[in-house]
Amino acid sequence: MKNDSVRKITGVAILIALEIVLAVVSLFWKIGPFVINLALIPIALCAIMYGPWAGALIGLVNGAFFLIFDSAAFFSVAPVGTVFTCLLKCTIAGMVSGFAYKLLSKKNELFAVILASILVPLINTGLFVLASFTIVAEAVRNLVPEGANLYRFFFLVIIGWNFIFEITVTAALSPTIYKIINIVRKEK
Q1: Residue 132: its pLDDT value, please?
Q2: CB 43 within 8 A of CB 171
Q3: Whole-angstrom Cα distance, residue 101 to residue 178?
Q4: CA separation, residue 119 to residues 171, 172, 186 (Å)
Q5: Which residue, 27, 33, 63, 40, is CA-closest to 167?
Q6: Coil, helix or strand for 108?
Q7: Could you tell me which of 4, 70, 120, 124 has the fewest CB atoms within 10 Å of its CB?
Q8: Do the beta carbons of residue 98 and residue 55 sit within 8 Å?
Q9: What is the dihedral sign for C-alpha 93, 98, 100, 105?
Q10: Residue 148 CA to its chain's centroid (Å)
Q11: Cross-strand bridge partners of residue 30
């Protein structure tokens, strides 16, 4: 096996480990019934550093983790939709992020890193919102407090606080961590 392949496999494995640690931390940090997914940062980093397929892989790991440990409220009402939603939203986010970085990095690497970092929470939340009003809609209705307006509650919690936090943290930390990694790599 070539040295580059070993480095890539090792790098992806380290990011998967970080993914799992941040996913565990995320389970304890919620707004209402919804998790603030800190584990989007390793997805963005993996997509940027190792490409779209590695980004998709780590996105799949993220989805599998949350499917196993944090989807009971959805799974009991819409099991197939929950599996579909959990496994695909971050997988697609990681893949699209990687392709965007790959496409734009030759013209402007900083812009490509920032855009790829923003795409992960944007696509993840966008696909969750789409699924929430279609394939897991009944499960979402069950999470809304009695007497609350479904759409107002949903958009305030999901689109409001959760999304703003996820996109801000991921967009701020991913490029910074990427820059630090590149500095360390060059010093070797």
Answers
A1: 79
A2: no
A3: 13
A4: 9, 13, 27
A5: 40
A6: coil
A7: 4
A8: yes
A9: positive
A10: 28
A11: 35
- Angle among Cα 94, 33, 72 to the nearest 5 degrees reads 75
Q: Report pLDDT for 106.
A: 93
User: What letter represents residue 21's amino acid?
Assistant: V
The beta-strand segments (E) located in 12-128 are 30-31, 34-35
Residues 6 or more apart from 33 whose CB is under 8 A from it?
73, 143
Contact 94, 47 (CB under 8 A): yes
Provide the 3-class DSSP secondary structure of residue 164: helix
Residue keyed to tokens 């790098």? 11
Sign of the CA dihedral running 84, 14, 37, 101 = negative
Q: Provide the token pair at 20.
A: 């799992």
- Cβ(136)–Cβ(77) under 8 Å? yes
Structure tokens at 58: 């780590």
Strand partners of residue 35: 30
The list of the chain residues with pLDDT below 50 reads none
Q: Give Rg (Cα) of the chain.
A: 17
Contact 24, 4 (CB under 8 A): no
Handedness of CA 46, 50, 51, 56 (dihedral sign): negative
